């Protein structure tokens, strides 16, 4: 494949992106979902692999919550269905809702063959889960509850004593909690997932842009976490002028400081245009923090809002710095436009290995994994599992990496930090498929 820069992102995986993908404005999570209906061949119902299904009678009974199915009506949910269920029961249930064979080819090169990497690994993970201790789940719960406690304590103390140092501590706990709470919104509806909304970000929006887009078509032209940052930050390898390449060095810190505010403003603007379509009553959880600060802090409303805003900026900086430099961006990581491993029979699990790197400082610490998007490969492959449980799955993962002659790339945090800036500057597509053994050869 050519390694010449292209002027606009193209999918070397053959994925047709939603029409608004290339508009400088207008792409939102809801527009993405609506336009997917035109490209996914789901014929107004739900598509799983090459079958069309009607889950209308099942939506309200879905054990994972109705939101996952209401959001995705009219789209291809193959990757979402595979990644979110480890037990075999959902697949057995599918038959009941089958309508007909789909008329078109899937708009995705990813496969889930029974003897392929992902399904083979999933089978063994299913077995491993039977003997796994429950303690890691409880430890994660304890950790996030403690983070929430300190967030509230320091936020109230920051207004009470009007102390910016305490405000910074509160902001750090907000950043930690927002990353850790992401552990919870991938699963069935639960109360702890609402901790995420203290950041002004919204679970519904993140279930779309993160769980249903980024997690499933990672680093592709269809990954909303990438496309919503364009044209400011351009992670896909395309021709960029010096302004865009070097400008990103300055833009990243600014985006970090305003990340929470940008997300909130974008959602409110969209809600205004759509008569509140994307708002939920549960969004009011975001107000619990400033209300507590006002009632217990003893300062005026304006002063309280000022300090709350300060805490949000610190939390935003923390969250975005961790998120942007966690796992996915480095010149050696596959980004759509590079030569892929395959463009038509591409095991979805392998696509995840190609699209990320693990950080060695984070592996092995439950706290760091929970607060730094750690054990990211296993998290992408099995997003409904608690982050604390993932470390128990490394032996099974390792066995299957060897069986399929692939590797998990483990680098340092500095490598992914630097690598993400190098990726923003990269204009030339990689002419060769990802070399997963390169890093193990080095060590
Ligand atoms: C967009 C597609 C879907 C998503 C994102 C999704 C997501 C989820 C989630 C997050 C859970 C809870 C897992 C946990 O917390 O451990 C779950 C459970 C479950 N889902 Fe889905 N689901 C989808 C489609 C379906 C469909 C189409 C069926 C049935 C045909 C189904 C059947 C089940 C069942 C039976 C469970 C209970 C747990 C189990 O037995 O594995 N889901 N789902």
List keywords for this structure.
Cyt_B5-like_heme/steroid-bd, 18 helices, binds protoporphyrin IX containing FE, single chain, 50% helix, Cytochrome b5-related protein, 2 domains, mainly alpha, globular, 3-stranded antiparallel sheet, two-stranded parallel ribbon, 443 residues, Flavocytochrome B2, Chain A, domain 1, metal ion binding
The gist of it:
The protein has helices at residues 29-39, 67-72, 78-84, 89-94, 117-130, 135-160, 164-185, 203-214, 224-227, 242-273, 288-297, 301-324, 348-354, 366-371, 376-381, 394-403, 413-425, 438-442, and strands at residues 46-48, 51-53, 98-101, 110-111, 346-347, 358-359, 410-411.
Provide the fold topology:
Blueprint: H1 29-39, E1 46-48, E2 51-53, H2 67-72, H3 78-84, H4 89-94, E3 98-101, E4 110-111, H5 117-130, H6 135-160, H7 164-185, H8 203-214, H9 224-227, H10 242-273, H11 288-297, H12 301-324, E5 346-347, H13 348-354, E6 358-359, H14 366-371, H15 376-381, H16 394-403, E7 410-411, H17 413-425, H18 438-442
Parallel strand pairs: 4-5, 6-7
Antiparallel strand pairs: 1-2, 2-3
Protoporphyrin IX containing FE (HEM) binds near residues 72 and 80.
């Amino acid at each position: 494949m050519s390694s010449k820069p292209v002027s606009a992102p193209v999918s070397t995986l053959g994925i047709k992106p939603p029409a608004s993908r290339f508009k400088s404005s207008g792409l939102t999570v809801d527009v993405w979902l609506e336009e997917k209906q035109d490209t996914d061949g789901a014929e107004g119902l739900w598509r799983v692999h090459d079958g069309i299904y009607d889950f209308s009678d099942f939506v309200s009974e879905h054990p994972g919550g109705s939101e996952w199915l209401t959001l995705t009506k009219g789209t291809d949910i193959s990757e979402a269905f595979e990644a979110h269920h480890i037990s075999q029961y959902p697949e057995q249930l599918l038959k009941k809702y089958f309508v007909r064979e789909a008329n078109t080819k899937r708009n995705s090169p990813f496969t889930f063959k029974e003897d392929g990497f992902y399904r083979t690994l999933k089978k063994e993970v299913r077995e491993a889960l039977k003997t796994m201790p429950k303690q890691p789940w409880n430890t994660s719960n304890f950790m996030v509850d403690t983070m929430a406690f300190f967030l509230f304590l320091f936020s109230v103390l920051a207004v009470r004593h009007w102390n910016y140092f305490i405000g910074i501590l509160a902001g750090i706990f907000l950043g930690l909690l927002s990353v850790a709470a992401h552990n919870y919104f991938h699963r069935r509806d639960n109360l702890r997932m609402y901790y995420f909304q203290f950041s002004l970000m919204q679970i519904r929006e993140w279930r779309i842009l993160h769980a249903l887009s980024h997690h499933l078509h990672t680093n592709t032209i269809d990954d909303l976490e990438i496309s919503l940052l364009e044209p400011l930050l351009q992670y896909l390898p395309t021709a960029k002028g010096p302004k865009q390449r070097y400008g990103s060095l300055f833009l990243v810190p600014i985006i970090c400081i305003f990340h929470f505010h940008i997300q909130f403003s974008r959602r409110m603007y969209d809600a205004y245009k759509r008569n509140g379509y994307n708002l939920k009553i549960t969004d009011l959880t975001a107000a619990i923090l400033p209300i507590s600060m006002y009632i217990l802090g003893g300062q005026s409303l304006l002063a309280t809002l000022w300090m709350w805003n300060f805490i949000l900026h610190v939390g935003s900086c923390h969250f975005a710095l961790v998120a942007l430099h966690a796992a996915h961006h480095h010149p050696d990581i596959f980004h759509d436009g590079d030569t892929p491993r395959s463009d038509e029979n591409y095991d979805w699990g392998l696509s995840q290995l190609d699209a990320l790197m693990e950080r060695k400082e984070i592996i092995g610490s439950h706290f760091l994994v929970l607060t730094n998007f750690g054990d990211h490969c296993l998290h992408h492959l099995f997003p409904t599992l608690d982050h604390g449980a993932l470390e128990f799955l490394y032996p099974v993962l390792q066995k299957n990496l060897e069986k399929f002659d692939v590797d998990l790339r483990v680098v340092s945090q500095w490598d992914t930090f630097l690598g993400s800036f190098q990726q923003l500057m990269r204009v030339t597509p990689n002419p060769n498929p990802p070399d997963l053994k390169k890093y193990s050869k080095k060590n």
